[in-house]
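Handout, page 2. Input:
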Amino acid sequence: MKFWKILILCVLMIFLGWGIFNLEKEKREMEREYIKIKEVTDKLTEENRKTREQVEYYKNQENLLKASREQFNLKKEGETLMIIVPKTTSSTPR
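Output:
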């Protein structure tokens, strides 16, 4: 009778140990996933902050005009637009 009690107790301990092992394994996987998600969240939060700064910057009409003039080669009324093309250097001696 004592043998059966010990055997049942050992079997229960094995099942309990196996369950704890699986829970720990799942916990580690979830921690890794949490870290990855946290990194993505931090990156997106930073991008969002930068985008908000740009929006605030371009809300100022002067900044918007300056950027559009630089990017699209626009000019103000009465201005002359000059495009400077750098000299090309040849590899052959003169």
